Amino acid sequence: MVDYFEFEESDEVEFIMRSRSNSYKGGILNFVSALDLSCNNLRNETPSEIGYLNGIIAINLSHNMIIGPIPRTLSNITQIVSLDLSYYKLSWEIPFEMSIFYSLEVFKVTHNNLFGKTPEMKNQFLMFSNTSYEGNPFPCGPPLSRLCSSNKESTIPLATTSIGVNRNNDNDMAAFFISFATSYIVFFLGFAEIFYINPYW
C-alpha cells in the first residue's frame, strides 16, 4: 500500500521553470507538479500517454534523441504553463490542437525538423515569437516570415530548392555545349575558307 504524501502549511518549495523561479507554500504544493526528463539521451517517439498527465504544469523533454511527431494528446494538459521540446529530433507538423492552451507561458520547439503550418495565433500563442521555432527550417505561418502556400510548397523548401538548382545547372550545361559547338563550327569553317582562297597554304 502506498501512502499519499501531503504538504503542510509551513512547507515551502522553490520551483524553477525555464530560469524563472517561483515559490510555492502550503497546500498549493499538493497541486503543483512537473516533469523534467531533459538531457537523458531518451530515444524513440514521445509516448502519447504523456497527454494523460493532466495535472502537470511543466514538461521539459529537451536535449534528447526522441524522434517522430509531437503527440496530439498533449492538448489534454490544459493547465500546462511551460512546454520545452527543444533540441529534440522531432519531425512532422506541430499539432493544431495546441492552440487551445490558455495557461501556456513558455513554448519552445527550437532546433528540430518540424514543418508545416504553425499553430493558429490565438490564446497563448499570440505571445510567442519566432524565437520559439528557431532552428527549424521548414515551418511556415505567423509569427514566422515564411508564408504558407496552398500547394504546400513551403513545407518542402529543401526539395523545391534542390530541383530549382538542378534545373539551373541543366540550363547552364546546355548553353555551354551549344556555345562550344557553335564556336567549333565557326572556327572550322574559317580555316576551310582560308585554305579554299589560298590552296598553297
From TrEMBL:
InterPro entries: Leu-rich_rpt, LRR_dom_sf, RLP_Defense_Trigger. Its main location: membrane. Gene3D superfamilies: Ribonuclease Inhibitor. It is found in: Cell membrane; Endomembrane system. The keyword Secreted does not apply. The keyword RNA-binding does not apply. It is a single-pass membrane protein. Keywords: Cell membrane, Leucine-rich repeat, Membrane, Repeat, Signal, Transmembrane, Transmembrane helix. One of its GO terms (cellular component) is endomembrane system. The chain crosses the membrane at residues 174-197. Belongs to the RLP family. This is Uncharacterized protein. The lineage of its organism: Eukaryota, Viridiplantae, Streptophyta, Embryophyta, Tracheophyta.
